[in-house]
Specification:
The complex is a heterodimer of chains A (340) and B (295).
Chain A lengths: L1 H5 L3 H17 L1 H5 L6 H39 L2 H4 L3 E2 L4 E2 L2 H32 L2 H14 L4 H28 L18 H24 L4 H9 L4 H30 L2 H4 L19 H8 L8 H28 L6
Antiparallel strand pairs in A: 1-2
Chain B lengths: L1 H58 L4 H5 L12 H32 L4 H15 L2 H13 L7 H26 L2 H9 L4 H12 L1 H16 L3 H4 L19 H9 L4 H30 L3
């Protein structure tokens, strides 16, 4: 109605009045319902709201289904389930401590390796790299964050495990194994598989992910701040240390926690190389299990309705609780999008 | 006289301190830069090593029989046809089911509940789902669709992938709708369009590229998912497109074959890994190109 809108001719006025009367006649409720004036509006509003609620139900259903599935195990073993180290299918005695320990230790070591490297990459990409290199290198890192985790697992199994077993682990055992204090971490036979290798694969996997997140938050620092610091004579490193990092501290930690969340629940990258042994070994080179790997490996041998299946589901519930806490913290630190 | 000497002496001293300090700062700066350069180098080498391994070990096994034969016992020249078809079916159906739901949730967050508490809760939960371990989604669908109905099925696999798709589409849809200027919506409403029409006909169209990017990213993500399929569609070494039976998929076949002691199976696993990685990378690049076309 571009032409008619300019002049208020009687025809438009009549139609407008008629529409208003029809509008009132249809329903008072429709007119007053949050600006909605048509059936279509109400249907669409209800539909989107239902979809939003569906997401809540989905999360609730995941928690409840894992809990119900794990209930027989929780009932049978009580709270001791979490602190029991045994995983004995013959005696039907199952405990969660070994996989929980494996999950936490592999993820923490992975973070220790990946975070400094990721920080270096992000620093390089935002401050040091020449402009023509930034976009392609950044895209490459983002693309590698998209590589399916099974690829990392396979690569680890066929390439890294032999390297670790033949060169890296014997070297570390010979040189660090006799050190007082930390020597026990580097002792035992060099299988190639185990906690250390799993942590390394996880580190390689979450490295591009954390680097991409860090780069994004580093880019949010207003260039005015950085330029001011440079103007005062700061070196590049001092700008990053005293301006960029303090400004982005919460988001950087949030990004790291997001990477931790990924490492905690990672299945395929770990399952290939963890060694599948239900024992806590003091050496980092010893085999172990994570929650995700034990679920993936033992599931085929757990018939429906068995105590073993229930124990695996209970482990799944524990993993969910752990990752939910980590993810919740990370979201709080990163800040939800809506509040921007 | 003696006062001036002290001053000049102390000035000399402070110049010396300043010089050594600036040298120290320059040295630290250099070391930090070198370490960052090294870190980037290590990352790039690691990542090139992965792609190189895939190309080297997978590329040598690519042959027509991979695409024309189904999986066969070791030593009889099998291919990956059923795995590829199974992956395509489950990915396409999962995305088809998950996308509309994700689209509606994203619309709800951007258009109806941008600041309400319900919106914030839904946004938070969706973000948690986005990063939740995928193996748990597999266990959830196992509890919901496999255990009660007494069998692994393609449907269960589709459902698990759909659950993974939803939060990805939600995230991009909301982000893209939020970017659309309010003036566009006001213009539509001023012309007499009801809100739903303004959203569907104006906002969706303006955000089309962004939404398409989200869907492409979702495809790339679920195409490589292994863990949730282990407990849902299980994998199937025979030819089967029936949705109510166990269904083969590329990642699960890779998982089974890579762990086997047979050389030709391991070789096929590498070929599968090559196919899936470059497929996923291709879709990711496509998504970037689509996104860049806006405006």
């Amino acid at each position: 109605m571009p032409a008619g809108a300019d002049c208020i001719c009687p025809r438009w006025f009549c139609m407008w009045t008629a529409l208003r009367i029809v509008g009132f006649a249809v329903s008072d409720a429709v007119a007053s319902s949050s600006g909605g004036t048509s059936i279509g509006d109400r249907v669409f509003a209800v539909l989107t709201r239902a979809a939003g609620l569906f997401v809540l139900v989905l999360l609730g259903a995941i928690i409840v289904s894992l809990f119900i599935g794990g209930l027989p195990a929780f009932k049978h073993f009580g709270l001791g389930f979490i602190f029991e180290t045994d995983w004995d299918p013959v005696q039907e005695n199952y405990g969660a401590l070994v996989p929980v320990y494996g999950t936490l230790i592999t993820s923490v070591i992975a973070l220790l390796v990946a975070v400094p490297l990721a920080f270096g990459c992000a620093f390089f990409l935002t401050e040091l790299a020449p402009n023509w290199l930034r976009a392609p290198l950044g895209t490459a890192i983002e693309l590698l964050a998209a590589v399916p985790s099974i690829i990392y697992g396979m690569w680890g199994f066929f390439i890294i495990v032999p390297l670790m077993g033949d060169y890296v682990q014997p070297f570390l055992i010979d040189n660090l194994g006799d050190l007082p204090g930390i020597g026990f971490l580097f002792q035992g036979p060099a299988f190639g598989t185990g906690i250390f290798t799993s942590a390394f694969i996880l580190a390689v996997m979450i490295l591009p992910f954390i680097a991409a997140t860090m780069r994004d938050v580093f880019l949010t620092v207003p260039s005015m701040f950085k330029e001011s610091a440079y103007g005062l004579g700061c070196t590049t490193w001092e700008v990053v240390r005293s301006i960029v990092l303090p400004y982005t501290r919460a988001s950087v930690i949030g990004g790291i926690m997001l990477g931790l969340g990924r490492a905690l629940g990672e299945t395929m990258a770990v399952t290939f190389v963890i060694g599948n042994t239900n024992r806590i070994s003091t050496s980092l080179f010893g085999p172990g299990n994570t929650i995700a790997s034990i679920v993936a490996l033992e599931f085929p041998e757990a018939p429906g309705g068995s105590l073993k299946l229930s124990s695996l589901l209970a482990l799944g519930f524990l993993l969910f609780v752990i990752s939910f806490i980590v993810l919740a913290i990370s979201r709080m630190l990163l800040g939800t999008k809506g509040q921007k | 006289m003696s006062a001036t000497t002290t001053t000049s002496l102390s000035m000399q001293k402070s110049t010396k301190i300043a010089e050594s300090l600036s040298k120290r700062r320059a040295r630290i700066n250099l070391i930090a830069k070198a370490l960052c350069f090294l870190a980037t180098g290590i990352a790039v080498v690691l990542l090139l090593a992965i792609l190189g391994t895939l190309l080297y070990l997978g590329g040598s096994g690519i042959h027509w029989s991979v695409f024309t034969n189904i999986t066969k016992p070791p030593g009889s020249g099998g291919g990956l046809l059923n795995a590829i078809v199974g992956s395509l079916i489950q990915t396409v159906l999962g995305v088809l089911i998950g996308t509309p739901v994700g689209l509606l949730v994203g619309t709800f967050l951007a258009e109806y509940a941008r600041t309400s508490w319900l919106g914030n809760v839904v946004r938070f939960v969706s973000d948690v789902l986005l990063s939740a371990p995928s193996i748990l989604i597999g266990l959830f669908i196992y509890q919901l669709l496999v255990a009660p109905f007494g069998g692994f099925s393609g449907i269960a696999g589709v459902a698990a992938l759909a659950v993974i798709v939803i939060p990805i589409v939600v995230r991009t849809t909301e982000d893209m709708l939020t970017l659309i200027p309010t003036a566009l919506r006001e213009a539509a409403v001023a012309l007499g369009a009801p809100k739903w029409k303004a959203i569907v006909l104006i906002c969706y169209r303006a955000a089309l590229n962004g939404i398409a990017t989200g869907v492409l990213l979702a495809i790339a993500r679920v195409a490589g998912e292994t863990a949730p399929l282990l407990f849902t569609s299980l994998g199937n070494l025979n030819w089967s497109t029936a949705l109510n039976e166990p269904m083969s998929s590329l990642p699960v076949t890779i998982y089974q074959y890579a762990g086997s002691p047979f050389e030709d199976w391991v070789q096929l696993a590498w070929v599968g890994a090559l196919l899936i990685t470059f497929g996923v990378l291709f879709i990711n690049i496509l998504a970037r190109v689509v996104l860049r076309q806006r405006g």
